[in-house]
DNA sequence: AGAAACCGTTGATATATGTCAACGGTTTTT
DNA sequence: AAAAACCGTTGACATATATCAACGGTTTCT
């Protein structure tokens, strides 16, 4: 089960992982299975673990006063489920993370991750590159949200996230884009003409 | 002029900077002055430098087909002006960064920064923490943009960014929030009642 | 196998926000 | 000192998107 994680880490670094490093990684990341609809993180709890998704699909969302869910992230294989603000600051999360499909994770605490970063250069390297990639992706999404119409946002999203479109129902995609499912339905209908 | 930068870096780390490290930093970061309205980065150019703002105020924005500017970032003292996607990937930027007030910067290339990260642990540490803080801030902004009405977004912004409100005109704040200046004007009027 | 939940779509209508034009008061430029 | 550019506001109107309700077709549960 840890092979996918090892492969994932390796891909970020030119330094190959030693056998000892691989063993340490395997010993540190704990497998965890979550059935569909179960929570990985609940609003109000501190996010204690980051989870690498080996198999499955998850979503992260907040719920407003009216009970409406707002999807902030969608995750599939090779993504990390985590509320960084909560796990870093040790504050209660405003988000929920739950499984959209039955999901297999490899989980790790923040303290363990800091330890691994210290012991394994490739991990430190991976984190740095992930942060960088993350900053870029966030910047793009923000920019798109501020500047573009719903239609253009959907087109951009569809162009770059084909796997998500296939894997999650439309109403989740709509919420991720900050629009209602009805609006997305109308946009798509119009787009095909 | 470099004292403010040294102080800024120190604040991120418990390791104090040695005299040699301070000298290296001072030698690497080049002072640069930019007059109001001048560009630090122009759309289409590769972002060659990151700039630490010692004094002044800047803005980062894209321009759409209709010629409308969309502010994605506002910067004042102790902020970093940079288009990370462009400087990391060496691709032409879709953004402009210009000075809103006369501004003094300390600039550094990506290669130099990587070198400093390698040589000075406190710098590596700073970058890591900045990335972390950044990820959190971006997450919040994104979440707010997706979930909240314009009015609530403005209230949240005003509550946490008093300095920006005092320093930049309303139409820039409006653009930063993804709304028009007219809408912001009406929101504010209503809010005071 | 039947019931229930889920999903996407459509219509009618409501609401938030954008667009355009104009104004008076500043500040900046020359 | 005059002219120009900038800034916030307001009104009238246009548009994008949300809301609410209903429907038929799936899929999921029991």
Give the largest interface: A-B, 27 and 27 residues
Helix count of chain A equals 9
Structural class of chain A: alpha+beta
What value does the Rg of chain A take, in angstroms? 18 Å
Mean pLDDT of chain A: 95
Query: What is the string of helix and strand elements of chain A?
Result: HHEEEEEEHEEHHHHHH
Alpha-carbon distance between the two ends of chain A: 45 Å
The unreliable regions of chain A are none
What is the molecular shape of chain A? globular
Question: Order of strands across the widest beta sheet of chain A?
Answer: 1-8-3-6
CATH topology of the largest domain in chain A: Jelly Rolls
Class of the largest domain in chain A, according to the CATH hierarchy?
Mainly Beta
SSE order and pairing:
2 copies of one chain form a homodimer.
Chain A: H1 3-11, H2 19-28, E1 30-34, E2 39-41, E3 49-55, E4 58-63, E5 69-75, E6 80-81, H3 84-89, E7 96-99, E8 103-109, H4 110-119, H5 121-147, H6 150-160, H7 162-167, H8 170-177, H9 181-192
The first copy, chain A, binds a DNA duplex (30 and 30 nucleotides) through residues 149-151, 169-171, 179-186, 188-189.
Domain Cyclic nucleotide-binding (chains A, B): 32-118
Pfam families (chains A, B): cNMP_binding
InterPro entries (chains A, B): cNMP-bd_dom (IPR000595), cNMP-bd_dom_sf (IPR018490), RmlC-like_jellyroll (IPR014710)
